[in-house]
Amino acid sequence: MKFAAISVALCGVSRLCVVPALFLASLFLTFTAQAQSFGSRTATVAVAEAGEDTLSLFTDIQGRVAAGQVTAITASANAVTTLEALRIGDMVKAGQLVAMQDDADLRNRLDLLKAQRAEAALRLTETEQTINAERKVLELQQTQLLLLQGKAERAQTLVSRNALAVDAAETARNAVINAQQQIAQRESGLTGREYQRQLAGAALARIDLEINQLQADIRAAQITAPADGQIVYLHPARRGYLREGDVLIRTRAPADYEVEAEIPLEYLLFAGPGESITAMDFTGRNITLTARVVLPVQNVRTGTQTVRFAVSGTLPESLLAENAPVTLQVPTTSPAPVVTVPKDAVIPISGGHIVFIADNGVAVQRRVKLGNAAGDAFVVLDGLSAGEQVITRGNEGLVDGKKIKIGDPGRRQSGPKGEKWTLNWTTRRGPASGDLVLGETKSFFNDEPVEVTRVGNDINFIGKLVLPFGVLDLEFIGTIAGDKMSGTVTLRGLPGGREATLDFTGSKDAG
């Protein structure tokens, strides 16, 4: 009747407003009756028993992705250098050409060295031929010496018999001495020639080394990437004169990332070297980390010590960035009995979470304090006991004291038929994505039903993203163009009541 009074007041004294007022009053009474009738209905729900598992309690500690060392690709010579058509962030493969250096000066020096080598080879050949000729002369002189020595011996024999004058024997002896002197000079000359030959051979070997080095420098003028990696630094000049050792490109291997976190000293026992823990990125995707080393530096103010964690498996693309945030679930206790409840039973509300207990055919609302996730369940720190029956399905519209019956609430049994889309957007914490299924009668976002408004190529719906700290509402407003979608997504429910509006894109899955 209040609606009727308001309508009459708004319409004044006009009789034309009487009918609308009566209509509104009738509508209000009908709605109230229907609401009362709905509230008296018995809701069908599915239940599960709160369990008890032996688990450790965890605390969330914020970490960051720490990048490893970079690979520097440098200029190999002083020359004009031209970079290939590369940009920051491009991936390069081992052996891929990344820059070219002008090798004209190197090739000129190579030609000069080749000419010097030919000259040195000629000198060596000349020395060897001279040595061979002098050795032949020496052999003749040695033969002549033998003849002269025989002649001198016979002359001495004749002198001893008074058959020859003493002067003749002395002359023969002098001839022997002269021959010996010539042989000694010849041998000394051959020794000098041998040193010349060795020096010529050493000069030839040195020139060969210089030629090999120049040939290697010419090959190095085509600068290639030594290993696979992503470009994180690029020289600002596409073409310019660079000196040997100047950095052209720095790359980082895609797998060369670790996670670094400041762990409280009292928890180091559970996060020391070799211990495995679970972590998650901004989208809630889990990764497994293994503590690699505890750095020998303590923060006295915070009572923490830095721990480096190695990533088990492949790091998600959302974390392939230096300083990307990671939430680590660090154990704070040894394994102990704890109460666990299925995730479907938990309903986020302002300031906390609630569950509904099935108690003698009535839904009883219970506020609970949650710990960390444990697979498909949450650890309950307070508000629930093991063995209690919690409602896991059909609890969306329940109120405290609602009559219930245990059965199958008829939730979706199989995936809907329709268009499957992958939506992507980027927050300040990194890339994020979601799956959208547009069915003829029902649509789903991340396997949860959503109401989709579609007018022509324009689409609008609100999905939910469940995170450990709460549930975000994601309102998508976009336009479909063939197998592509684009528009904006507004994130609501961020800490502090903040909202963020971001651009998103979508692609229709093949098949």
Detailed description of the structure:
This protein is α+β, with helices and mostly antiparallel strands and 511 residues long. The protein has five domains: 1-31, no CATH class; 58-68 and 256-331, Efflux pump adaptor protein, beta barrel domain (Elongation Factor Tu (Ef-tu), domain 3, Beta Barrel), CATH 2.40.30.170; 71-98 and 224-252, OB fold (Dihydrolipoamide Acetyltransferase, E2P), CATH 2.40.50; 104-220, Helix Hairpins (Orthogonal Bundle), CATH 1.10.287; 418-508, Lipocalin (Beta Barrel). The chain is built from four helices and 32 strands. It has helices spanning 2-11, 18-39, 104-160, 166-220, and strands at 43-49, 51-55, 58-67, 71-74, 79-83, 91-92, 97-101, 222-224, 229-234, 239-242, 247-252, 257-264, 276-280, 286-299, 304-312, 325-331, 336-342, 347-349, 352-359, 362-374, 377-382, 389-393, 404-406, 418-427, 430-439, 443-445, 448-450, 453-455, 458-467, 470-481, 484-492, 499-508. The strands form six sheets. It has a nine-stranded antiparallel sheet with strand order 27-26-25-24-32-31-30-29-28, with no helix packed on it. α1 runs antiparallel to α2. The longest helix is centred in the first third of the chain and has 57 residues, at 104-160. The protein is elongated. The two termini are 57 Å apart. Residues 1-40 and 411-415 have low confidence and may be disordered.
